[in-house]
């Protein structure tokens, strides 16, 4: 079974159950956006080989935010590949303290059953293991560089870090300014049969503001932390969701 789905030239979705990572090729260098859980390391290594690289070719792990389904795998990937770890300062400071997330999560009204079904999913429960709700105790780790909103991401060419707080205080999205625009949303947006904010967030109102801000950018492709990528007309879909 294939470990990857090419969603744009040089951008490969790596489905890891209910969460996605993305391998990104830029001028011959390989990066990954989000790290999954520690138990996903072998699947990520297999995905790297599937697109013609070796794990040692991975140069950096760019994390949208520090929740365990997106950052728990970071330490293992650095040990396996020597890759640099990149995270926003807010979330990087939490990681250094041995914490993931900043405060308890709130459920969006009307989505209680969806969230409950996800929480009781056997795969989700197995991967979450002993992890509790945010702020979640984790093995502390230091990042190698911070993702600064308004700046480019090292190694990703013409790109833009966009502050996208709400789901997580230090969350960022990344816009790759190539091939019509490729937006890597993290959990600032989801595709659960609808395009919108994640149904759980530290601050739901702020999450909606961040989603609406993302919709102001132009991009052809949207790559979600949860759900299938949109491979055409993505920013129009975001704008339609805002206006609905």
UniProtKB/TrEMBL annotation:
UniProt cross-references to Pfam families, sorted A to Z: Lactamase_B (PF00753)
Q: Where is the signal peptide?
A: none
Q: Required co-factor? A: Zn(2+)
Q: Where is the Metallo-beta-lactamase domain?
A: 18-226
Q: List UniProt keywords, sorted A-Z.
A: Hydrolase, Metal-binding, Zinc
The entry's protein name is Unannotated protein
Family, per the entry?
Belongs to the metallo-beta-lactamase superfamily.
InterPro entries, per database record: MBL_superfamily_lactonases, Metallo-B-lactamas, RibonucZ/Hydroxyglut_hydro
Q: Which GO terms describe its molecular function?
A: hydrolase activity; metal ion binding
């Amino acid at each position: 079974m294939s470990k990857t789905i090419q969603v744009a030239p040089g951008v490969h979705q790596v489905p890891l159950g209910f969460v996605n990572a993305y391998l990104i090729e830029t001028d011959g260098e390989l990066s990954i956006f989000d790290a999954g859980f520690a138990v996903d390391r072998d699947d990520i290594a297999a995905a790297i080989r599937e697109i013609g690289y070796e794990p040692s070719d991975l140069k950096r792990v760019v994390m949208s935010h520090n929740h365990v389904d997106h950052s728990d795998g970071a330490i293992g990937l650095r040990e396996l590949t020597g890759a640099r770890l990149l995270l926003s300062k807010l979330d990087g400071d939490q990681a250094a303290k041995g914490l993931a997330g900043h405060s308890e999560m709130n459920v969006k009204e009307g989505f209680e059953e969806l969230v409950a079904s996800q929480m009781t999913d056997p795969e989700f429960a197995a991967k979450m293991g002993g992890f509790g709700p945010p702020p979640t105790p984790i093995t502390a780790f230091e990042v190698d560089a911070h993702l600064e909103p308004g700046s480019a991401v090292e190694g990703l060419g013409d790109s833009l870090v966009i502050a996208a707080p709400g789901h997580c205080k230090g969350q960022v999205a990344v816009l790759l300014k190539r091939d019509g625009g490729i937006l890597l949303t993290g959990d600032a947006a989801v595709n659960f049969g609808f395009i919108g904010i994640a149904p759980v967030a530290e601050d739901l109102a702020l999450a909606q503001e961040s989603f609406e801000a993302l919709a102001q950018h132009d991009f052809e492709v949207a790559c979600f932390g949860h759900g299938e990528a949109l491979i055409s007309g993505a920013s129009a879909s975001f704008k339609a969701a805002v206006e609905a």
